[in-house]
Specification:
Helix content is 35%, strand content 19%. The protein is an alpha+beta fold and 143 residues long. It has a single domain, classed as Orthogonal Bundle (Arc Repressor Mutant, subunit A). Strand 3 and strand 4 form a beta hairpin. The longest helix is centred in the middle third of the chain and has 13 residues, at 54-66.
């Protein structure tokens, strides 16, 4: 069973000018429902005629993920991080198909209440958390 692990929590966005590489990468991911690897993004950029190098794609993805522009997940047992442009900028979680990678953004107020309660019960404040749920989507579950 594959379980996705969030690479880092979604930070607050900061306003700054985007590079052409950042714009191109977000453009590739915008509207996609699944997470993509750096290599997949690089190949798509090359198909579109971009001359950006693979190392630049990796560096740019790391910056965009650290700034909260992209969500990043890493599958256990691999060193590969997968990326996705999130449609929802507010705190949310992901339900991801372990077969095809289809991802649905979900809000879960009961999880938020639970996280606050557990933290407060242990004397913690300024709480942040991540929750990734995996399963099999209807398309992959159909034989």
């Amino acid at each position: 069973m594959t379980r996705t692990i969030p690479v880092h929590p979604r930070p607050r966005r900061t306003a700054r000018r985007k590079t052409k590489q950042q714009i191109a990468i977000v453009g590739v991911l915008r509207g996609k429902k699944e997470f993509w690897s750096a290599t997949q993004i690089y190949n798509e950029l090359r198909t579109q005629g971009s001359t950006v190098g693979l190392a630049t794609v990796y560096r740019t993805l790391a910056v965009l993920a650290a700034e909260g522009e992209l969500d990043a997940l890493q599958h256990p047992g691999t060193t590969e991080t997968l990326y996705r442009a999130c449609g929802d900028l507010d705190h949310h979680h992901h339900l991801t198909c372990r077969e095809c990678g289809l991802t649905v953004e979900v809000k879960a107020p009961e999880i938020e209440a639970f996280a606050r309660s557990v933290a407060a019960g242990n004397g913690f404040g300024d709480v942040d958390h991540t929750l990734e749920i995996t399963g099999t989507c209807p398309s992959c579950a159909t034989p």
